[in-house]
Design a protein that fits this description.
The structure holds two protein chains of two kinds. Chain A is 40% helix and 13% strand. Chain A is α/β, with parallel strands linked by helices. Chain A starts with 23 loop residues before the first strand and ends with a helix. Chain B is an alpha+beta fold. The chains are: A alpha/beta, B alpha+beta. The interface between A and B is medium-sized, with 35 and 33 residues.
Chain lengths: 467, 226
């Protein structure tokens, strides 16, 4: 999450989660189908005008818009679940209204819950630069980076949490606090009748001990905690639930596209749809191992014909991203079939088109959160090869919904195998699509929140604890 | 397709209410890093964990036709590289059990025997841990109710696969009978015993849940056309 919004606004507009970066492309070969200026290096020419400015975001969808995707039965289940919660209210609290996967998810979740007559309010905490510097450091430390937790950092964290706590009202029936930044708001719990839930979107499997010990007493005051993977959780004395992250099948990144749009995007980027296309979509980040993908592709190419598309970002706003991009270019060398696209963050529709045009999608991460790019590829029915790290094994059941790999050589072999066994590739692609429909869509996320709310209400009723 | 004979259905005196169940995944406190730890955890974990990793995981993966049976078998091969054990665990048919205790005992028996015969396999570290989870269940109504065989067939066609799973697979834990809600109703309310038997015999491990739905519908259609 990018701690970049300090306004405290609750006005949220739909945003697409895209690889962030500046607009630059590196095309290494003239396409054999019509494309822009064959033979000319893409780095030497501007991006197509269509991707230079962010598009106007479409309005958020309504529940009935999902009927054709998940079926009437699933929508009925949501309505039955919500019926017993009618009039009860939820507050979501996080640290940013725009940018990052949490804001993107809340942009869709909040209106859908409200449409089900479970009014849901979204508050964003405020803080100065010093607060967000501390919380960014906490974020990295909880992911395992070394960090020297000082008394000053503790005081900054607590002071801003206290300011927000005094400013906010907690009259709702369930309060959901997202991630560590607002975690100390839970100090208000005893003054409210609400269920308090901590939704942790980050991997806590190997946290910096001091930072976790500082945050842990707050976490333990919640009624329940939610994690994105079993392996991300900690031993805690409160209930812990598993909510997989989700994608919105109606977003620009994932909606169905006419073939003409897919073709247009491929033409603009010089991707030849008459030949197999192997794609990895991710930031130019070493943990995504783009150089390993190039190496695997080169090994596979000794046996099979294919192009490699590396579509991502992160090279403009992140100094390390620029270094990694250069490493990728060096690894690609003079291979004319490797197309490197450094895209701006609003290119969701273009990413969608490239994924749909792909024969195989690769996500050869060395470390990963949940890996929503894998979810996106599976949703598009693409046979997917991915590193067996983070939350990816929750999505890819080896040889059933995709294939898991642990090395460059393994990745190369699977590229060869899937390109030469289209029936198997089609089967795992179909299974992968169904796996996402069942477990990783926005409607399933809505269902989980309703289920959790009902289960907490039932547990309270059984305990007879509070009115 | 079995011969369902030429039974004539009675008019049901009680309607069939199609329900469905929704599950929330709770993260448990136990995890296993090798097969010995798995055995120990299966012996001691709550019943709803056994339910989650057997009955419920079938529902989560209802779209897979072949190769997925339960989480214990899957982990044994992909995290522990013990295909013989995995085959034995995967061959356990949840529909042979009307209570979780029996299912747990069967898993313990298979795992215990395997580790007795292959003691070196017990402490070998798994590639990734097995995290025990559990299901919190909420049963919900649907908009479908059948008071005739035709209405029943319509319901079978239209309810979600979760409803099919609820009535066809989970039901035996509720009924404590080697049967399912569909077969029970067909037998008790319409007198179609052979149809009920044929439905009970559908193989859930070589079909997707959509495939199960189609087979149930085909058997009922055949009975209606007799």
């Amino acid at each position: 999450m990018t701690p970049d919004n300090k306004s405290g606004t609750t006005t949220a507009t739909p945003v697409e989660d895209s690889p962030s970066a500046g607009p630059q492309t590196e095309r290494r070969k003239a396409p054999s189908t019509p494309g822009p200026t064959p033979g000319r290096r893409a780095a030497d020419r501007p991006l197509p005008a269509s991707v230079l400015t962010p598009p106007v975001p479409p309005p958020p969808p309504h529940l009935d818009d999902y009927q054709g995707i998940v079926g009437q039965g699933q929508l009925d289940a949501l309505r039955f679940l919500a019926r017993e919660l009618k009039g009860k209210t939820i507050k979501m609290v996080n640290s940013t209204a725009v940018g990052g996967g949490v804001a993107e998810m809340l942009n869709r979740l909040v209106p859908l819950l409200s449409e089900l007559d479970v009014p849901t309010h979204w508050d964003v905490i405020t803080g100065g630069n010093d607060f967000f510097e501390v919380t960014k450091a906490f974020h990295n430390a909880l992911h395992g980076s070394a960090y020297d937790l000082t008394e000053a950092a503790r005081q900054i964290f607590l002071m801003y949490n206290e300011q927000n706590r005094e400013r906010m009202q907690f009259g709702e029936d369930m309060v959901v606090v997202h991630d560590p930044q607002p975690v100390a708001l839970v100090r208000s719990k005893e003054k409210t009748h609400a269920h308090w839930v901590w939704r942790c979107h980050i991997d806590l499997s190997n946290p910096d001990r001091k930072v976790w010990e500082f945050l842990r007493p707050f976490v333990e005051q919640f009624d329940a905690a939610i994690f994105s993977s079993q392996s991300f959780a900690r031993q805690l004395p409160i209930l812990q639930y598993l909510f997989y992250p989700c994608i919105d099948p109606l977003s620009e990144k994932n909606k169905e596209l006419p073939d003409s749009v897919v073709q247009k995007v491929c033409d603009e980027f010089g991707i030849d749809r008459s030949r197999p296309i192997v794609t990895q979509v991710s930031r130019f980040d070493r943990l995504k191992d783009p150089v390993g993908v190039v190496q695997a592709y080169k090994l596979a190419k000794k046996y099979v014909d294919a192009q490699l598309v590396l579509a991502g970002g992160g090279a403009t706003d992140d100094p390390e991203g620029a270094v990694v991009l250069q490493e990728v270019k060096d690894a690609a060398a003079d291979d004319p079939d490797i197309i490197i696209l450094d895209l701006p963050p609003w290119c969701a529709l273009e990413i969608n088109a490239i994924q749909r045009a792909s024969t195989i999608v690769v996500q050869k991460s060395l470390k990963e959160g949940f890996g929503l790019t894998v979810t996106e590829a599976l949703w598009k029915g693409k046979p997917t090869i991915a590193g067996a790290v983070g939350g990816i094994p929750n999505q890819i059941i080896h040889k059933l919904t995709g294939v898991l790999v642990h090395s460059v050589e393994g990745c190369a072999f699977q590229i060869r195998y899937l390109l030469t066994h289209p029936e198997f590739a089609r089967t795992i692609g179909t299974n992968g699509h169904e796996h996402v429909r069942e477990n990783f869509l926005m409607t399933t996320n809505v269902k989980r929140w309703l289920l959790l709310f009902r289960i907490l209400e039932q547990a309270r009723a059984q305990r007879g604890k509070k009115p | 397709m079995p011969d369902n004979g030429k039974q004539q259905p009675r008019k049901p005196s009680k309607p069939f209410y199609f329900n469905t169940s929704e599950h929330l995944l709770r993260i448990g406190r136990q995890k296993a890093c090798n097969l010995s730890e798995l055995l120990q955890a299966i012996e001691t974990c709550p019943e709803d964990s056994i339910f989650q990793h057997t009955f419920r995981t079938l529902q989560e993966h209802h779209f897979i036709r072949q190769g997925f049976s339960n989480d214990f078998g899957h982990w044994s091969v992909f995290a522990c590289n013990e295909p013989a054990l995995a085959e034995q665990l995967a061959s356990v048919d949840v529909r042979e059990f009307t209570a979780i205790a029996g299912l747990r005992a069967r898993m313990v028996e298979i795992l215990g025997q395997y580790l007795h015969n292959n003691p070196q396999a017990g402490s070998r570290p798994a590639y990734e841990p097995f995290y025990f989870c559990a299901s919190d269940i909420v049963v919900l109504p649907t908009t479908f109710k059948a008071d005739s065989l035709k209405g029943f067939l319509d319901g079978i066609h239209q309810v979600s696969v979760h409803s099919i799973h609820h009535h066809f697979i989970e039901a035996r834990l509720r009924l404590h009978l080697m049967s399912n809600d569909f077969s029970q109703w067909l037998e008790e309310e319409t007198g179609l015993e052979r149809v009920a038997d044929s439905i009970e015999k559908i193989d859930i491990y070589t079909n997707t849940m959509e495939g199960v739905r189609l087979q149930i519908a085909r058997i009922i259609s055949q009975a209606m056309n007799n």
